[in-house]
Amino acid sequence: MTTVLALRVAGLSWRVRPRAAAVTLGGLLLLGVLMALNMRIGDIQMSLAEVARATFDTASAGHFVIMDLRLPRALTGALVGAALALSGAIIQSIARNPLASPEILGVTTGASVAVVAGVVVSGSAYGGASGLLSTLGIPALALAGGLVGAMIVYTLAWRRGLDGYRLVLVGIGVAAVFTNVKFWLLTIGDVNDTSRAMVWISGSLNGRGWEHVRPVGVALAVLIPLALLGARSLDALRFGDDTITGLGVRMNLSRALLILAAVLLAAVATASAGPIAFVALAAPQIALRLARCAQPPLLSSAVVGALLTTGADLIARTAFSPVELPVGIVTAVLGAPYLIHLIWRART
Amino acid sequence: MGATAVAPRSHTLRHRRLLLLTVLLGAVCVTVVLSVTVGSRPVPPADAWQALTAPAGTESHIIVRSLRVPRTVLGVLAGLALGVAGALMQGHTRNPLADPGLLGVTQGAAFAMVASIILLGAQSLLAYIWFGLAGALIASVGVFALGMVGGRGGPTPVTLALAGTAVSAFLYALTSAIVLLDEQAMDVFRFWQAGSIAARGPDVVWQVLPFVVAGLVLAMVNAPGLNALSLGEDVARGLGQRIGLTRGVGVAAVTLLTGAAVAACGSLAFVGLIVPHLARSLSGTDHRWLLPYSGLIGVALLLLADVIGRVVAPPGELEVGVVLALLGAPFFVALVRRRKPVRL
Amino acid sequence: MRLQAAAVKLGYGERTVVDGLDLVVEPGTVTAIIGPNGCGKSTLLRALGRLLKPRGGEVLLDGKRIDRIPTREVAKVLGLLPQAPTAPEGLTVADLVVRGRHPHQTWYRQWSSDDEAAVSEALAMTGLADLAERPLDELSGGQRQRAWISMALAQGTDLLLLDEPTTFLDLAHQVEVLELVRRLHQAADRTIVMVLHDLNLAARYADRLVAMREGRVIIAGAPHEVLTEELLREVFELDAKVITDPVAGTPLVIPIGPHR
Known about the structure:
The complex is a heterotrimer.
Chain A: E1 5-9, E2 12-16, H1 18-40, H2 48-56, H3 63-95, H4 107-122, H5 129-157, H6 164-188, H7 191-202, H8 210-237, H9 241-246, H10 251-273, H11 279-290, H12 298-318, H13 327-347
Antiparallel strand pairs in A: 1-2
Helix pairs in contact in A: 1-2, 1-3, 1-12, 2-3, 3-8, 3-10, 3-11, 3-12, 4-5, 4-6, 4-7, 5-6, 5-10, 8-10, 11-12, 11-13, 12-13
Chain B: H1 2-37, H2 45-53, H3 59-93, H4 105-120, H5 125-148, H6 157-181, H7 183-194, H8 202-229, H9 233-238, H10 243-265, H11 271-283, H12 287-312, H13 320-338
Helix pairs in contact in B: 1-3, 1-12, 2-3, 3-8, 3-10, 3-11, 3-12, 4-5, 4-6, 4-7, 4-10, 5-6, 5-10, 6-7, 8-10, 11-12, 11-13, 12-13
Chain C: E1 3-12, E2 15-25, E3 30-34, H1 41-48, E4 56-61, E5 64-65, H2 71-77, E6 78-81, H3 93-99, H4 113-125, H5 141-154, E7 159-163, H6 171-188, E8 191-195, H7 199-205, E9 208-213, E10 216-221, H8 223-226, H9 229-236, E11 238-244, E12 251-258
Parallel strand pairs in C: 3-8, 3-9, 6-7, 7-8
Antiparallel strand pairs in C: 1-2, 1-4, 4-5, 9-10, 11-12
Helix pairs in contact in C: 3-5, 4-5, 5-6
């Protein structure tokens, strides 16, 4: 049973689900701890106290390291995770399908194709240029690829309105094309380029700086309020189309706007850190089970996504130290058993 | 009056369905002929026929017998297996996003293959396939067991699908980690991932044949039960269907079919994602017809894509999975756009 | 004495809904189970139809424990229709009714003349022969419900369990469905057990009413024995006047207001 509290302040009123709120707040606390732990790691190991001092004392020795290297990386991880999870939560609600993720909107697959093509084509032929490609070229390529991919899916699925089921089917088709083009590009490339491309495809937070934080941060700052406004209609979208119209939701408009928000979130996140696997699919499912809601709660999903990515990054950097795994590999290793545990617990 | 109204109707429907089945069989035959005759060295149909009936040891006869025929037979097996398995999987989960690898079969096979390379030093194609099969079976059984635990009357479609996705993601992560650390594994993996039915000898065909045949038999046994299940679990039980048994048989069939296909031909699982939607638009929701339609469309598409892949990029070849996606997916999208999709 | 529940204990998860309930379904009658929401009506019906396994006690079909009889054998004598069933989109009426023959089919005998006859009869009986081609989702609510009943009918069983067959239907369609139930009963002396919400319709269309409250049977008997003003107060906490239905002669409940 989910209880709902009413929060009323001076003529304004909101409905608050205590369990979802608890998950969100508790998650944020845990997130802070994990990010601090994450910032200890690097060429110079620091204690938590040193991290704190270096953060706030501008004169301290570690200040530069924390502010210019470690904090942006930790923030990128958390923000990217939140953006992907929020995107997944929106899509799962609209498609009314727990298996849906930004992949069916063509975003992540489109971005992957663009980047792999970029790496394989320019690749080892321009050894010197690859440094430039990885700092400037890849995020731009990924963003363009993701947006074009989403545009293709959106255009093809639109037919006198947007039907959730048709969107899913069109998404499958387009994703199949993108994925297989990616596979093919991987087979024609040099095996070294292939490995480099694989790292990006898996999603990585290595060397992420403020230039990666800003776009995701801005996107979240704009799109989270927008998505929360749309959440009211998401609640209604859960029902069939007939019921929705009956509830007075302007179906196509709100659905279109929400999908647009999901696309932008996923595209910006992917551009920053690559298509980190599984977060968009698992975080909403984990959040809805923790909060005991019928459908993914948006804020809790975002927090769980940030937690999952940050926790995965921590493990990715420490487990096989000094070798650092791409974070996208660890998200699944961390998230999958937990999701299974939650499913399992619900049934007993 | 009722008796006369129903009888003729069901007969015309039956005729229409049989006619469609014949058309699909015809399409399969055409693609089989194409697959045996077309290639970097074209062989006229008459010559190919001679190679089969009275081999003379000429170069073209050797090509037909040792390369083209095993390749074609493998294409037929894989197309049938993936088409049927996809339809079963979507029927059981009632989810249009379900592909036959959903229960961890595909990623189980991939993981076992790359693990066998780095841990046991496996080198040959046959070894990869055995490991792939074993990995597929173990992963699928594991997912089904996870879904079973604590549940009354067997796993529900949603938990099964989610558990399968989670296990798949987990295994894929492990596979990615291995191939990032080991270049030889990476090299095998990237070609497996693209999917191909080329350069596999008759021994591979014999290796996977029993699994495919067993899977197809189980699938056909499963069809009426799946029809009952599609009316909801309560109605199905009211009709005397044992839910747990039906799901178990379905999962076993999917595992055998998909495991055999992906172990031998690589990650072609999305054949099983798209083809059932095409078949459903022809057959409706009756699985006794949907399964054969889906299997035959799978074969025709797979072989056609393979033939096209041989000729578009001479002197090389394009992997069948790539062609299939480029060929099948736009067709699929056009179909979805043009008419109201038949929902699960 | 074909179907009976003896001291059954039923529940979901940690919740016990029904404890120690006895019920004998009289053969050849139409029985309606009534009671307030959450009293365990549907739970009882599910147990009678072996959809829910009793925690204690037993459900007997022809004197044997129903969970010991192969489920397919049960399906040949007992048909059931859950509340608000759903079908795949695009399924036609005929396809649905054909699936009612499932328990009689095997892989080597998929479409016998018996099947053909049973389906034709079921369609004719429910007045759907002309709509056989139409997809289920294009029908009106009443027609759709008739199609589902037709499926249960094609199953060819003497016993039919219907869980709220009139939910979501307007009054005219409720009457249409219940008239059909009555015809089914009269045509072949079928035994029918249904859960009904509307007391007046239950009184009109059932031979026997079973009134439940909090998982127990309060009273079972003919409508005029069960539907009394005292019972309505006890079971439904409803102050009501009971008069005689001027059309059917059965009891008619006129609510006054909630009992305090």
